[in-house]
Amino acid sequence: MKNIKTLLVAALAAVFMPVCAQKGAEINLWPQGPAEKSSDRADTAKVWVYLPPKAEATGRAVVICPGGGYSHLAMNHEGHDWAAFFNNMGIAAVVLKYRMPHGDCDVPVSDAEEAVRLVRRNAANWNIDPHDVGIMGSSAGGHLASTVATRAKGDALPDFQILFYPVITMMPDITHKGSHDNFLGVKAKKRDEQEYSSDLQVTRVTPRAFIALSDDDHTVLPANGVNYYIQLYRHDVPATLHVYPSGGHGWGNRDSFKYHNEMQLDLKAWLRSF
Predict the structure, then answer these.
(1) Cα 267 from Cα 272, distance rounded (Å)
(2) Any residues with CB less than 8 A from the CB of 263 and at least 6 apart, and which?
(3) pTM over 0.70, yes/no
(4) What is the separation of C-alpha 121 from the centre of its chain, rounded to a whole number of angstroms?
(5) How confident is the model at residue 263 (pLDDT cuts 50, 70, 90)?
(6) What is the β-pairing status of strands 92-97 and 46-50?
(7) Is the distance from CB of 122 to CB of 59 less than 8 angstroms?
(8) Chain centroid to CA 82
């Protein structure tokens, strides 16, 4: 009987251990309190860390910022669902739950920058090369990722960026209005709109970029990602732009996206190019 119980426990452990590993380690981003206070004290920032097996680790890591118009977060298909993809390539995936701005843009930006710093502080323990840490974002998360990529300094500046159907500009003509209003406020100043339009902040030291979107995206106009690519090209920043014929907005890592396989192959090829 004792042997049967032992075998049963071992079998259950074999089943549940991979499930636990798939969830990632949850970490409070600001254990001593956030650098930037939020008007919503109940909203907390955290990350989930998914590490590949040590023997398979390439040393690369990516901080993932889900979208949601700066009003909520699509944590699964634009966040956690990407972990296995990166881990299978030997890349650490760090999914960020950033706080909502409520008109104070410094709140989510400080969270994303701290997430990049967190990865570098733990580089040795997590088998990560501190000079190979990227940032990724979808939709409004793409705006956040590109904001960090064009504005951050020092240890908060990522080494590469991955953007899916990103909000790039805050200028009223082609921005996503919900993201604009939640990030900067309904009565945003033109100076702030320009300052947080990532295409206007590109320099020759902006990190390399992968940009993917759909031609028929009527939620975040494709001009956002296209204009960003043009500015990267003009400043001699290595970048690649993939415009898929259809798919609309918000496909993330869903199998239902018609060009899901092509998109993953494109991203894999780009990640292996440097």
Answers:
(1) 9
(2) 212, 242, 244, 257
(3) yes
(4) 19
(5) very high
(6) antiparallel
(7) no
(8) 10
